[in-house]
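Chapter summary example.
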Amino acid sequence: MAGTAARAETLLGIGVVSTTPVAGGDICTATRLRLTDGRGAIIKTRPHAPEGFFRREAEGLHWLADAQGARVPQVLAVADDCLVLDWIEPGKPTTDLAEKFGRSLAATHRAGADAFGGPRDGFVGLAPLPNRTLPSWPEFFASRRVMPYVRAAVDRGSLTTDEAATIEAAMRRIHDLAGPDEAPSRIHGDLWSGNVVWGADGDVWIIDPAAHGGHRETDLAMLSLFGAPHLQRILDAYDEAAPLADGWHDRLPLHQLHPLLVHSVLFGGTYGARAAAAARDLLAG
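The structure predicted for these 285 residues follows.
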């Protein structure tokens, strides 16, 4: 880890006392740093990262932090090849923390966004995330989130042409399926449970964002897709702080189409079939 420590010292202008590998990341190499001033930090690196990869993440963290809602780690340094953040000491999920997180996530969403999308394209995992703005969420979701990944999944062989046709049929009905119009929310964009850190400091932190102006139900759908500790307490607290539109729970499969398609492109497996099944259920409902 000598090279990693040296890179961090150059960027931070402070010495690194020790480094420790952090398990769990399959996209970046994560290393915990202990600095000479006593602080902890984490540096994320990836050889030959796509252009703007770490800078888009840093911009998303700054934007989410400005909402003064759900906590995000402070960006200490960013470069083309790495990102250095404050270290968040993990703790244990509790119902009290879940309630706190639900309310703070609602505050993040309430901070809003200028439009559906964002000023620059980003990334979700290693996959590109088109962010060119559109005037309504149904248009944005179909054109920027679903259809590009339908085409990519078919090309990869993880989605059949019949399955793709089912999802396309759901997108033709997107205005009927999307629920009441809402203003753009400030969303994390990739809020699965692995991107939620239950801190030992008594806060819940969100990391690794694909932040953009979107629909607030998208973050809740992602939390629900892969499960999260005390999920129902999170959702209940959120709904108390920022009441959700009628039928929101029935719309979660719509919002889950995007992450399922992203996973089908990145990992293959049954994710494409799951996306098609969700679309069939939406059409049947």
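To summarize the output: The longest strand covers residues 16-22.
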